[in-house]
Amino acid sequence: MEHTASRPAPAGRTRRIVLTASAVLGLAGAAFVLRRPLTMAVPMCTAGRWDICFGTLNGVAFLALAALPLAAVAVWVLARGRRAVDRATAWRLSLAEVGMVYGSAPWVWITLQPGAGAGVVPGRLSLVPLRDLLTMGTGGIIGNLLVFATLGYFAPVRFAALASFPRVLALGAACSVLIETTQYVLWLDRVSSVDDVLLNATGAGLAALASRHRWRTTVPVPAEQPRPAPARVA
Fold this sequence. Notes:
Elements: H1 11-33, H2 35-46, H3 50-55, H4 57-66, H5 68-82, H6 90-111, E1 124-126, H7 133-146, H8 149-158, H9 165-185, E2 191-193, H10 194-210
Helix pairs in contact: 2-4, 4-6, 5-6, 6-8, 7-10, 8-9, 8-10, 9-10
């Protein structure tokens, strides 16, 4: 009698299950951590207080969680478009692309919120390393570490050229310098500090180390076109 061995589940299906489970667990964990800020922000946002929704950390956190289904749809659309070209990495690359934007945009938005003296108080610089760190507080330090953590986690997963700890540090520092320069030039009544740059870059680098086993270390090489056969000489 001939027995047929059971086939293992396709790798693509397993990958989707893992990604879905991770997204659900991540959403549940974020909702648990942010449960108190969300309970304060939800009534304001539903009442049309857009200044609270878009101008405070609690409101932006609520909007970010509300936009999570849209991010999931974006991953699905990108992955479906890639499957015909690179089925093996379609979901991983699509998740990395959306994750970089979705995870960084809310933090960048918060850092660019104007203060009470915006447009009146000139930009201020703090260029002495570690001076502001001593007065920043635990919340400020953690917040600065998280600004580009998602970018640092997903950038080397998406781009082989960034699959290096020093390069991710440089990327985080460059993005942070851009933000601090914007704060200074636009007179947002915020202090442009070198310590913010150091913490932003460190957060990106630490997050990159957490995703090291997923880094994209190879660049797909296009298939060589067949060369025409040399013409025969009579």
